[in-house]
Amino acid sequence: MSITAGKLPATGAVGATRVLLACVALVAGLVLALSLGLTRAHATTLDETLADDVFVNEPGSTGRCTIYAATNMLRRAALLNGDQDWSSITTSSIPSSGGLPFSFSVSTQDAAYTVEHGYITGSTVAERIAELLALLDENPAGIVLYTSAGNPHAVTLLGYDEKTGTFFAHDSLTGATSPLDECVSVRVSNANAYWYVASPVSAPGPISLQNATVTVEDAVYAGQTVTPQVTVTLDGATLTEGTDYTVSYVGNDAVGTALAVVTGTGSYSGTATASFEVLDGTKALVGRCAGTVEASTVTGQGAMAAYGAGVLGLAA
């Protein structure tokens, strides 16, 4: 676990005891979860199934776009199921005498995957969007989406971005994962058929916060519980409190060492922690006035100012 904290843990007995108890509780919780078998069966996350080496691409226009799209869908299904032999699925694995069969099976050393065919029935764009969203909900590995209109083509439809209202897909002909509207010719408005993995596929699990970096600054105690701002980053991205994680604190109601505990929510799971110092308000104020404590190194400056006004007998 990579952790960035405001300062190293204090050596005081009270602060050390609080942090130790919190860490023991976190470890005990993880041990209990493992003993109950609460870990997911799949061996990868949704993001990892979008890696470049998961997809196979056409070396130019081959007229076999459905074969490539189905191969990519099946490789993602195998990954989500924790199939160690997922990379053995190639275009040669697809039984075909030309086009993609309506129903077929592909096997690895560890599992067999059955693919079935269906038709898009919605007459309006809104109906088609609802239909595709339902298909994606039922098929975590995505679906092969095909259009026979104009320039017949197929892509692997991967997901939907709710914030932008955009479907995204992998197009084996361009070799890119992009918004559906940037693919060669398949659109929500013209798609008329699809293939999906009918055999069970594990739903993508949440991303663990195990390797998250948690940053929290020291805070000043002025008679009230302190809740300093916490920043959480993972793989170069800054996560959002309330959406991606929640924060709780241990030992933040007294001077000493405290702990910020970040718990994943939504698309994230697990916990990450960082310790910080709860500084004595009087000492911090004196240090600030003496120039030995920089105002920017501590949070809760409003509380420190109010505390200082009280110490000096000034109106808050």
Biggest β-sheet description: 7 strands, antiparallel
Run of helices and strands: HHEEHEEEEEEEEEEEEEEHEH
Low-confidence segments, given as residue ranges, are 1-43, 295-316
Q: What average pLDDT do the residues reach?
A: 80
Radius of gyration, taken over Cα atoms and rounded to an integer in Å: 27 Å
Strand order of the largest sheet: 1-2-7-3-4-5-6
Task: List the total number of helices.
Answer: 5
Task: Give the CA-based shape.
Answer: elongated
- What is the number of E strands? 17
Quote the distance from N terminus to C terminus: 43 Å
Task: Give an account of the 3D structure.
This protein is an alpha+beta fold. Helices cover 24% and strands 28% of the residues. The chain has helices spanning 13-35, 65-80, 125-138, 281-290, 301-312, and strands spanning 104-107, 112-119, 143-147, 153-161, 166-171, 176-179, 193-197, 207-208, 213-216, 218-221, 230-234, 237-238, 245-250, 256-264, 268-269, 271-280, 298-299. A seven-stranded antiparallel β-sheet has the order 1-2-7-3-4-5-6. A hairpin with a 4-residue loop joins strand 5 and strand 6 (176-179). Helix 4 (281-290) crosses helix 5. The longest helix has 23 residues, at 13-35. The relative contact order is 0.15.
